Amino acid sequence: MAFLELKQVEKTFFAYDSFTTAVEEIDLTIEEGEFISIIGPSGCGKSTLLSLISGLLLPTSGQILLDGKVIQKPTPETGYMLQQDYLFPWLTIKDNITLGLKTLGKTKQEEMNLAFQLLETLGLSDKKDHYPAQLSGGMRQRVALVRMLSTDPKLLLLDEPFSALDYQTKLKLEDLVFTTIRKHKKTAILVTHDIGEAIAMSDRIILLTGRPGRIKQEFILPDDLTVTLPFAVRGDLQFNPLFQKIWKEMESLESESQGDANTV
């Protein structure tokens, strides 16, 4: 049995006098411990797909199963990391990272130890009594990662978590997130517009078509790249050919979209 299964998933949004289909005919199987990236043209439904997997949205048709159970609402088994850190500015870092645990009623010291250990691992143990406004953007995203991992979810959903950071910080954080996720043997799905980031971090890359998003193609990364730090992958001889191959597929999708628009 697959860890995560999407079976003929479709999501349509209805308004009073119109409707929009964001994704359709999505069939996808993800094994435990895999790191998957989802890429595609703007507006193709990448973030919608994450919201469906998280249980924040329900599919119009089809099923999504996590460990054999149909996802019908958000659960602690899934963690979500967004473009913005969404830390509560009036809470200290210590209180921000333990908020999820307290919400779940996990207030014993041994249950909170993972959060504090992660904070130390990511080099922020000396910031636990600070407030978010006192931290840089990269530090805040590291705190958001700790908050997500502290409840020990089975599945991690990453919606462009590095896009608001400067390039140097982004590259450093990619390595840090990659290492942390691999160390804790988590299953992760990353939505990104950055082809290089997808290659550097993933086991597989799923390319979606323009709206409504369908799976156009799947790229399986070489085994040696999947165990290499993202920064080092970007300098590997295999990186550029892979980038060019995926780029050409993306370009063809853009051309198809423009052609369809011109015929309307």
From TrEMBL:
InterPro entries: AAA+_ATPase (IPR003593), ABC_transporter-like_ATP-bd (IPR003439), ABC_transporter-like_CS (IPR017871), ABC_transporter_ATP-bind (IPR050166), P-loop_NTPase (IPR027417). Keywords: ATP-binding, Nucleotide-binding, Transport. GO terms for molecular function: ATP binding; ATP hydrolysis activity. The keyword ATP-binding applies. The keyword Nucleotide-binding applies. Residues 4-235 form the ABC transporter domain. It holds the Pfam family ABC_tran. SMART domains: AAA. This is Spermidine/putrescine ABC transporter ATP-binding protein. The lineage of its organism: Bacteria, Bacillati, Bacillota, Bacilli, Bacillales.
